[in-house]
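> call design_seq(struct)
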């Protein structure tokens, strides 16, 4: 289980260390306090793959056309104050003391980017590299585990596009990122539901749906045309899940990521989105239970006081061994560097009850 993180020169973090993570972690703070950036740092450190770098560009709505027009600036927004002269360092440590160090740096070098035996299989990639007119900016990722085993990968940005080689990351946890606004495709969500059915976990999805709408009686998947999940309410015909609004789609995505990935890390940005406040406590109860059962670790951000109260209520009633913690992201008034203020559930409860600021107020 991840216990601490150190971040240097990444996004809004000049130099920050946060420790004391527990099984379930809720993160609050003002806008631009680093909540989403913290999730991104955890994602990259635990799964330092080129496709996750591209996912972060998509989440931040960074224009692909911009990267083609100005490839030399394609990676600027990853770096604190866009200063690419200093490398990014993200270090995490778990409860056993094992560490993972991720370094990100930028230059124009493509030397040794691919091996000789890959050249014949990647004509598009070689064409991109061989074009003398193509301006190139290369983001290098280098990960080191326990200060010993290491591996690296790179992503090239050019006027012809962005291209990278997929890499196999050794011995790291499965980590999933659920953005605040992107909805997973029907096909992908249905595939995840079928995986849950195969492992006899589908009842977790129905229970979560009934928490939101008690009239839902049945969940099914069909592959007529595009694979789709269908729901059946009492006395009604089946309807596709996409017609039931954001809450059910988002809840399905969250629960499926947990039940299909034991011992994983789940990152949820703005967890309150689409979920009515009357269902939030029940939802946290489900998450606490699944984190316990599946040995998963959850990190979620919120702006909502109601979601904080629901987190407290569920945490205080939790009968399992799972511990929940709250982190308030704020800036040190002297240094202006971002810090993470940890509170256990009892302390958070006291702060809310006595009107103390717990969201960066």
């Amino acid at each position: 289980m991840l216990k601490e993180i150190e971040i240097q020169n990444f996004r809004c973090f000049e130099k920050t260390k946060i420790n004391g993570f527990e099984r379930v972690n809720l993160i609050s703070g003002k806008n631009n306090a680093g909540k989403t950036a913290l999730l991104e740092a955890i994602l990259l450190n635990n799964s330092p793959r080129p496709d996750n770098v591209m996912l972060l560009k998509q989440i931040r709505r960074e224009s692909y056309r911009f990267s083609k027009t100005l490839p030399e600036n394609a990676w600027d927004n990853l770096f604190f104050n866009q200063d690419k002269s200093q490398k990014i360092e993200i270090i995490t440590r778990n409860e056993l003391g094992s560490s993972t160090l991720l370094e990100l740096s930028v230059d124009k070098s493509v030397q040794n980017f691919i091996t000789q035996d890959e050249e014949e299989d990647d004509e598009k990639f070689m064409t991109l590299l061989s074009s003398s007119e193509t301006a190139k900016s290369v983001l290098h990722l280098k990960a080191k585990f326990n200060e010993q085993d290491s591996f690296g990968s790179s992503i090239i940005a050019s006027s012809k596009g962005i291209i990278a080689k997929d890499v196999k990351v050794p011995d790291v946890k499965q980590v999933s990122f659920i953005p605040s606004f992107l909805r997973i495709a029907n096909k992908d969500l249905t595939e995840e539901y079928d995986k849950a059915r195969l492992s006899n976990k589908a009842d977790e999805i129905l229970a979560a749906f009934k928490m939101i709408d008690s009239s839902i009686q049945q969940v099914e998947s069909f592959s007529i045309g595009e694979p789709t999940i269908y729901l059946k309410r009492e006395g009604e015909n089946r309807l596709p899940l996409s017609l039931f609004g954001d809450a059910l789609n988002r809840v399905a995505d969250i629960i499926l990521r947990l039940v299909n990935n034991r011992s994983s890390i789940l990152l949820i940005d703005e967890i309150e989105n689409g979920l009515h406040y009357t269902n939030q406590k029940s939802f946290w109860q489900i998450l606490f239970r699944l984190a316990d059962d599946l040995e998963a670790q959850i990190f979620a951000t919120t702006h909502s006081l109601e979601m904080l109260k629901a987190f407290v209520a569920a945490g205080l009633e939790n009968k399992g061994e799972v511990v929940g913690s709250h982190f308030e992201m704020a800036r040190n008034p002297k240094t202006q560097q971002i810090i993470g203020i940890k509170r256990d559930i009892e302390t958070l409860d006291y702060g809310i009850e006595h009107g103390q600021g717990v969201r960066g107020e």
